Amino acid sequence: MTLTQEVQVILFKPQASIDLEGGMVLSEQMAGVVPQANQLWVIDLAEVHFMDSSGLVPLVKGLKAARQSGCRLVLCNVQTPVRLILELTQLDSVFEIFHTYQDIFKGNKDENLVLAS
């Protein structure tokens, strides 16, 4: 008998900036996901070149919601201006941050990933 665990990946790809307006959009997208244990929530910040303090709120709320539901939330492709905000607020030590989307899965032996968005 072989047991296989499937991991469902929820991918969020915010665009341009995560400020008050962009943060509300991201919050709405995350609120639209029904959290299930063992989901992997990925926030791909490749297209985000600006984030202010109001943009931190949806990230922290998303992390809290994910953890309370038994999910894992990670960030990837963090651009320099966004990384500076995370470092200044010391949130870079709170979030799991990966250089690329592919780096998230390096060393992961689970071949059965399901992509949902």
List strands and helices in order, with pairings.
Layout: E1 7-12, E2 16-18, H1 20-31, E3 40-44, E4 48-51, H2 53-68, E5 72-76, H3 80-88, E6 96-98, E7 113-116
Parallel strand pairs: 1-3, 1-7, 2-4, 3-5, 5-6
Question: Can you describe this structure?
Answer:
The chain is of the alpha/beta class and 117 residues long. It has a single domain, classed as STAS domain (Transcription Regulator spoIIAA, 2-Layer Sandwich), CATH 3.30.750. It has 3 helices and 7 strands; from the N terminus they run ββαββαβαββ. The protein has helices at residues 20-31, 53-68, 80-88, and strands at 7-12, 16-18, 40-44, 48-51, 72-76, 96-98, 113-116. Strands 6-5-3-1-7 form a 5-stranded parallel sheet. The protein has a two-stranded parallel sheet with strand order 2-4. Helix 3 links the parallel strand 5 and strand 6. Helix 1 (20-31) packs parallel to helix 2 (53-68). The model is unreliable at 109-117 (pLDDT under 50).
